[in-house]
Design goal:
The chain is of the alpha+beta class and 687 residues long. Helices cover 32% and strands 25% of the residues. Strands 13, 14, 15, 20, 23, 24, 31, 34 and 35 form a 9-stranded mixed sheet that branches. One of its GO terms (biological process) is glutathione metabolic process.
Amino acid sequence: MTYSLAVDIGGTFTDIVLRDSSGGLSVDKTLTTHHDLLEGFFRGVESVMGKAGIDADAIDGVVVHATTVVTNALIERKGLPTALVVTEGFCDVLSIRNEHRYDMYDPQIEFPEPLVTRELTFGLKERVLADGTVALAPTAEDITKLAADIRASGARAVAICFLNSFANPDNEAAVAGALARELNDVFICTSAEVAPQIREYQRASTATVNAYAMPISQPYLKRLSDRLRMEGFANTPLIMLSSGGVVGAETAGKNPVRMIESGPAAGALAACHYAELLGIDRLMSFDMGGTTAKACLIENRTPLITGLFEVDRRYRFREGSGLPVTVPSIDLIEIGAGGGSIAHVDDLGLLKVGPESAGSNPGPACYGRGGKSATVTDADLVLGLIDAENFLGGDMSLDKAVCDAALTRLGEALGLNPVQAARGIYRIVTEAMASAARTHATDRGVDYRGLPLFAFGGAGPLHACGVADLLQSTSVIVPPQSSVLSAFGTLVTPVRLDLVRSDLTRVDHLDWERVDRVLGDLESEGLTALGESGCAAADVTILVGADMRYVGQQHEVTIIFETDPRQSRDPAVLTAQFEAAYRTLYGVNPSHVPIELVTWRVVARGPLPHFDGQERAQIAAGAAKRHRPVHAWEDGQSVAVYERAALATGQTIAGPAIIEERETTTALPPGWSATIDALGCIVATKG
């Protein structure tokens, strides 16, 4: 029997999945230990190994990890002093940003403080022209002085971002090599390695984020690898990336900026896996955990990919208020609507929920760990949607008295009783998630109406039917082990690396020899990285794409080409696919305007892991194990409670009903019914 292990560390819970070669799963959830993430990691691992009755040496398959370590470091500013080296005259690049105001009419607009202060930004005499010509190379004397200045500053990491280095990285590489010899205990990265793309500020921001995270991520991943080896695990860990692939710990440690959205990306890939199994081409994944809720559009059983996202936003869900990161990532919308989201009364006396979260420490008031504020989880408990004595199968009992007190205080501020306040929280958070999903889909030219909603995460199945109702979804699908599905998603994703390089040119003026050189370099880099992860070159699939736009436009449209353009060498093929994608987004094509290619993209992908689900045992239809009062839809409504494991394939349940399992609960409102399909999914539809 072969065993594989997956661990996803989230803001509130750490999820663990142990899979055997027959398809059997052992799962667990434990509170995230923010003071030392590996403490919660191995506590959960020991729990699932105990359930399966095995030791570490039996886990001879992959060990895959998704983590928030980089995100935490950025938000909490826990990194070590970091320096930035730029072309002389560009030392204010991080402060000037791109002069974009995300709110034109706010005179007190705020942006996050740059990760690198002006005092730790150093200019160096050098210049590369836009066509890649080296007009001025840095001198050895200047580099030596720079190294001395950096050493005197106390910086422990250095990002190098020179003007036009995406076109020619020679100057960056020369300075990085010299600094590595002079400062052998300092972490160094170049923008040409991390994000070789046009737009100086975004590239500098990405390189800075990467350098800032390196002193944290590399020791963390080394500690993880060393402890796994010490405890007898056969293989080194694979690390989940934001783009939806996994790579070796060494590659991930050099590029921690690629790990920022690793957990949410894994959840989206699990949704794609089930889309294949269920034969559904289009759906919307809905992941609601303890801290946030995430939605992702799945088109043709594949998630949408974006080349730009933000971290450390001043206004968490306002685009433009954070630090831009230009690395490939699964395109997600995230809102502050998790189980730990705190409810409060604003200055106008209105009830608001989030984006602040109680996290795992102290957590919601009902956790009994010192939290005093009412949260979404507290509201769910007061409404009767979850059972205080059956949370995590009874391993973690909830404090109903503390919860009631928190909702009473909130209700008094609103002139409501505790149940009314809890119902308000439930409805507000549901509407907020539906509104964000609508906006996300509309901005991408996707009609969300009628899309099935694929619900998972610890709180997702509780709220999914309410969100689906507002989105006019045809159905809600709750898969088995839905609470730990992001961890499961890391086991069904291939080894993969997304690479980019800007090379601005008119499509009708393409130099195919240059195209061969650029794409060949990216392909070689991808093959090397996947080889380090144990993937043979013969098993690697190469996909080619590009960011394209009409001449004069500021923003591009990303295309993944149906075939490698090097085969046909026909610009008309590129043009046709771009125009089709542009028309989908904007409904019109300015056909008289020339098209230019801005950035090449290469995806190096290994084979999909083989996964056979375990067949469900044939059992008799399970009856309700009890009834309890639920106040979510009507006061004191008596609602049937079912045990999910006791439900038979093909069994149908009419709402209102509650379906419980150890790690989560599914709520069926009145007017909804659910059927258990052959895979064990709960498929809910509205009458």
